[in-house]
Amino acid sequence: MSILSTLQWLEATEFSTGIRESTYVWAYIDGIHVLGLCLFVGLTMFWDLRLLNVVMRRVPVSEIWNRMIPWMTIGFIIMLISGLGLFVSDPVRFYGNIIFRIKVVALALAALNALAFHYGIERKLLDWDTTPTTPTAAKVAGGLSITLWAAIIVAGRLIAYNWFEPLI
Amino acid sequence: MILSLFEWIEKSALGVSVNESLYAFALIESVHLLALAMLGGAVLIVDMRMLGLGLKRLPVAQVAKAARPWLIIGLIAIIATGFPLFASLAAGKYYVNAAFWWKMYFLAAATIYTFTVRQRVAMGDEVRASSGFGKLVALVSLFLWSGVGVMGRAIGFI
Lengths: 168, 158
Prior knowledge:
By secondary structure, chain A is mainly α.
């Protein structure tokens, strides 16, 4: 089964048709997606700024990490579920949209960055509590995260415009 | 009176150039969303702290002080990008859009509330800031700012 035929099957399901043809469901899910953005990207941005040694420099890194990670996770789950809901409503059209594909690539890069952080420098996080600044690797991780999430937001908004011919 | 002002804005160089460009509206709207993330995060981190969530080991005033520059930058950026979006169709679309007016009422209320009541409580007595009263102050803030976001999204669906 190809990606396209899977998405065509998905598009024909009752769930997909239901969201697509409803007047309000799509709007409500999109509203949740926008509010979730504040929780997820807003808090992630503060965490990234702490990694970059820009905000709350005197607060131990581990303290911010331990307190914020549950909320960043909740925000991410809200974004993921609402985003999948939006995608499922019209999967073939999204798949054919070049800007949607750019967003997916940027999401994959952000995920790689997060994984690299988790399996790499996160283990040394406690050490940074006692150093005057965060290490270069932490600054790179924070800077990449802010850049990628900003690109994801911009791409997400631009999906709505039909500037390019559909790819399929 | 207001309608003629909106018509004048729509016909101004700013309004016309955003309206006639194929890309301007979309690109400004994208930056508007980036500003929303910054503003939303700066509002949330303080309200959450007052509700006893998130950075709960830090004093409320310290969290509010750290978030303040980002709150101000986010608010300036969101208004600076919001105005050209509004100008492009001030009379034709926004004047007659109920969600737009609700968004403006929520925005005015949320901004005034944040820089007066919430600011005073967050920067004031620490015990009061994290008391039941502090929680109420934070919930009102969350309600007002959520109203801005929800009504903003609703503009496009009316």
